[in-house]
Amino acid sequence: MKITLRVNGTDHVREVEPRLLLSDFLRHEIGLTGTHVGCEHGVCGACTILWDGEPARACLAFAVQAEGHEIRTVESLSPGPGRLDALQQAFQDSHALQCGYCTPGILMTLTAFLAENPHPDEAAVREALSGNLCRCTGYQHIVDAVLRVAAA
Amino acid sequence: MTSFGRPLTRNEDPRLLRGEALFVDDVELPGLLHAAFLRSPHAHARLLAIDTAAARARPGVVAVVTAADLGEYWQPGPLLVPPPPVPGMEFHQRCQVPLVRDKARHVGEPVAMVLAESRYLAEDAVADILVDWESLPAVGDLEAALAADAPLVHDDLTSNVAARVHQARGDYAAAARAAHLVLKRRFTYDRGASIPMETRGIVADWDRRADRLTVWDTTQAPVVIRNGLAAMLGLSERQVRVVAPNIGGGFGPKMMMFYPEEVLVPWAALRLGRPVKWIEDRLEHFFATTHERSQIHDAEIALDAQGKILGVRDVFLHDTGAYDPYGLTVPLNSQCTLLGCYVVPAYDSAFTAVFTNRTLVTPYRGAGRQHGVFVMERLLDLAARALGIDRAEIRRRNFIPADAFPFDQGVIYQDFSRLSYDSGDYEPILDKALAAIGYDDFLARVQPTARAEGRALGIGLVCYVEGTGIGPYEGARVQVQGSGKVSLATGIGSQGQGHATAFAQVVAEQIGVDIRDVEVVTGDTDQFQWGVGTFASRGAVVAGSAAHEAAKVVRAKILRTAAAHFECAEADLVLADGAVTVAGTDRRIALGALAGLANPMRGAVTPGTEPGLEATRYFGPASGATASGVHAMILEIDRATLRPTILDYVVVHDCGTVINPLILAGQIHGGVAQGIGNAFFEKLAWDSEGQLLNASLADYLIPTALDVPRMRLEHTVTPSPLNPLGVKGAGEAGAIPVGALFAQAIEDALGLPARDIEIREMPLSPSRLWEITEGG
Ligand code: FES
Ligand code: FES
Fold it and tell me: With an 8 Å Cβ cutoff, is B25 touching chain A?
């Protein structure tokens, strides 16, 4: 079926099967490969995107369900070519990523979190982060990055 | 200012943070076909018949491949690591096959490959394939697998023994006779999985006009994959390019080769003349990507009345899974690492590797070292208790003294050289750890106070060594580009270790450029075609040293070329900030321009001149560099739920010279997190039929941000004399001692010694801990 999805402020019109996952639509239909998949069963958070501003798992939705909603992916965070937003910059400064596979999903989760809680403490950051799995960092530097943004 | 040794942020981060970095599944090609695999649902079953007609007939399906379709291409995989030259050793090589032909030996073993226009269609067609199986009894338990009437994993062998290795030095029997105390215990360590957030994947593209095959692979060893694929497919090495782009975590299992999919996907691309992609899903990953860690140790320690070790004897079983392509790396690591930081005058260790109907076992971060450390540290804890000696003190009494290095352990290590510790100094590490965790104060004040309040607080403290940076070799090519930037190419792949930054620091140190101007290329065989791989914490040590050597040569070329240009002495030149300046003058040439001068387009050069500012060097250490450390932690156990909360965690680590403390901290944090998972959350659960019961991330729990504590790190530095940088590897240190640490701290928290209860197994969980402590 034919759908129009609004992703990062741009409309994309595609002919898709009803069973196509939103994560596959983003990655393979419109080439936004920054959104990663780590489990495709809603646990790891690698595929987290913003759905009308709320974090959501792109692997748990069909593309057709996203019609009429505002989707944002990691590619929308940078304020301009070659640049990083404050959270991305804090991630680099704190060494909050290693392989970087979990990172886009974590950035989207935390972007929404910081919008609602601009000055969280460590316990709140860890709670917010606990739905995203990272196998490389042990989370400490990720927590540091968020606290760095919160302190700025 | 020099960049070497500073906590610089990473070159690789901006692209990863913007979602621009290339991972294997990001590769899209015109005409791409998608592969999906039918896998054995049985742990052990004879394949009687397979009917693929319906699958082939499904619209959108291009091909269905079974073992019979492979013809001569069907071959067991190569033996990646040959057995060690230990006298009297027995080893039975049984390597994995591309597709099951006569019998399946573990759940998830591939049986057929479907190629279709989309992954969705390919999976539909997998469900169309009909297989007639005769299910056979499966072996999983190591001791049951060795019973005389056990079902055989490999019918042509007379038992499920994959290997037997016995190493001994000194006279353990005499040591035991002379001992004041001999303790004997059984220790078990069960299976876990590495669970990188990115599963495995491979894309292959045969370009008919260029006569070349390009393969994107989530491998830790692109050069070895290229050479192997070329040989299997009847191509020259130059016809095959393997790219390991950004890899979403490796941890060892992506070092394994050849996975069946790695053999089949490139073959299909060649056969069909279309590019083919296969990306493992998480369910497949649990069955098809290698695991680690089942071992059962029957260990014995002999000590004198002062707690000095006289000898250790250990007999253990090692689960190698259904096949053993990785040789004996894991059990050899266990055997060698058990000796730890200690003088063990007599050592007698024998292991039997056992075939089981389970997924293959190959190295996963720590690679068998966990088991050795667990056994030795537990024995010392029990000995300390029996002799009334403090835990820290018994370790101190047995440390290899600082003046005894290099220290020959007299056994053969995984790199087949004699295990010799290059350098080390263990007491300062222990002292720092004791001070940082507040050991004396905890025991004297904190713990009794907490106990009085009814809280169960315990402390743990364990020591370990880590053999790192083994050979044989890696290489690096450093070149000043026309742009003035410096490129560094090496054959290893990166899975998040920060090589693009650490190696840049090594090169920048020599060439006087900003590290942002060093472009590091790893994992592309077209850029550098010699190398072995990223494993055994060897990237920084071996490839880093090669980069250092190459950069030194380029530095010399820069100075020579500039001296000729300015007609001055090399000693008058200053190489800094991307340019060469004649000291005390404004005469200056940028490196890019100098690179142009070094590559003249007309005229004659002196015979023997090589063009450009470029050099390639190789580095092969005589043996590995031995890192060491102490982990200490304070934890609290909730008496009702038996769930632990880590209140403080200290790592004091000596990995020689540190290239980048920020990256090093990240490596240790991540290792500890995996260690915590391995100690308390992660256990692959199997039923008696060899079915894996928790093959999803919802059931197999890896630690979240709420489970991993804030860690405090300190360092000591004992440079390695075996490489020019003085570095030792650090990739696995975080993970190795955590099991032993949990066991000790939990016993302490719950007061188990007073109840004569010992923790002798890993991994634990609240329910397992309840069974152990409450006698369930
Ligand atoms: S891929 Fe969506 S939650 Fe893991
Ligand atoms: S950085 Fe590798 S999974 Fe998070």
Answer: yes
Lookup: tokens for A10: 């741009």
Smallest CA-to-CA distance from B431 within B400, B396, B404, B460 is with B396
Per-residue pLDDT of B289-332, as tens digits, reads 999 989 999 999 999 999 999 999 999 999 999 999 999 999 99
Task: Tell me which amino acid residue B738 is.
Answer: V
In three-state secondary structure terms, B95 is coil
| Rounded CA separation B2/B512 (Å) | 8
Of the candidates B621, B222, B584, B652, the residue with the CA atom closest to the CA atom of residue B431: B652
CA of A129 to the centre of ligand 2 (A): 13
A142: distance to nearest CA of chain B, Å? 9
Residues A137, B195: C-beta atoms closer than 8 Å? no
Whether A105 and A60 share a structural domain: no
H, E, C per residue of B525-578: CCCCCCCCCCCCCCHHHHHHHHHHHHHHHHHHHHHHHHHHHHCCCHHHEEEECC
Query: Do B417-469+626-776 and B17-136+197-249+254-288 have the same topology in CATH?
Result: no
Residues with CB under 6 A from ligand 2: A 97-103, 134-137; B 197, 249, 496
Dihedral Cα B579, B580, B586, B592, nearest 10 deg: -50
Residues A112 and A133 in one domain: yes
Pairing assessment for the beta strands B761-762 and B181-189 based on DSSP bridges: parallel
ipTM for the complex shown: 0.98
Task: Say yes or no for a CB contact (<8 Å) between B669 and A141.
Answer: yes
* Tokens, residue B492: 């290893």
Nearest to A100 by CA among B768, B509, B14: B14
Q: Give the domain range for residue A21.
A: 2-76
Residue A127 sits at the chain B interface (C-beta within 8 Å): yes
Model pLDDT for residues A76-97, shown as the tens digit of each residue: 999 999 999 999 999 999 999 9
Q: Which two tokens stand for residue B690?
A: 């060899």
B85 phi and psi angles, rounded to 5 deg: -80, 60
Per the listing, tokens 């369900």 go with A65
CATH number of the structural domain B417-469+626-776 = 3.30.365.10
Say how far apart CA B471 and CA B583 lie, in whole Å.
41
A26, A50, A76 - which closes a domain: A76
Average pLDDT over residues B266-285: 98
For residues B387 and B397, give the distance between their C-alpha atoms in angstroms, rounded to a whole number: 13
CB contact under 8 A, A28 and B28: yes
Per-residue pLDDT tens over the stretch B700-739: 999 999 999 999 999 999 999 999 889 898 888 889 999 9
Rounded-to-integer distance, Cα B665 and Cα B672, Å = 11
CB atoms within 10 A of CB B472: 10
* Cα R_g (chain A), whole angstroms: 15
**A9 burial via Cβ count (<10 Å: 0-12, 13-18, 19+):** exposed
Q: Which residue has the tokens 């491949």?
A: B65
Residue recorded with tokens 């759908």: A3
CATH topology for B471-619?
Answer: Aldehyde Oxidoreductase; domain 4 (3.30.365)
Instruction: Count CB atoms within 10 A of the CB of residue B67.
Output: 19
> What digits encode the pLDDT tens for the residues B359-391?
999 999 989 999 999 999 999 999 999 999 999
Would residue A6 count as lying in a domain? Answer: yes
Class of domain B138-194+290-400: alpha beta
The CATH class of the B17-136+197-249+254-288 domain is alpha beta
**To which H or E segment does residue B185 belong?**
strand B181-189
d(CA B652, CA B629): 6
Please tell me what DSSP assigns to residue B702: P
What CATH number did the domain enclosing A108 receive? Answer: 1.10.150.120
Q: How far is CA B304 from CA B387, B400, B643, B772, in A?
A: 9, 17, 37, 30
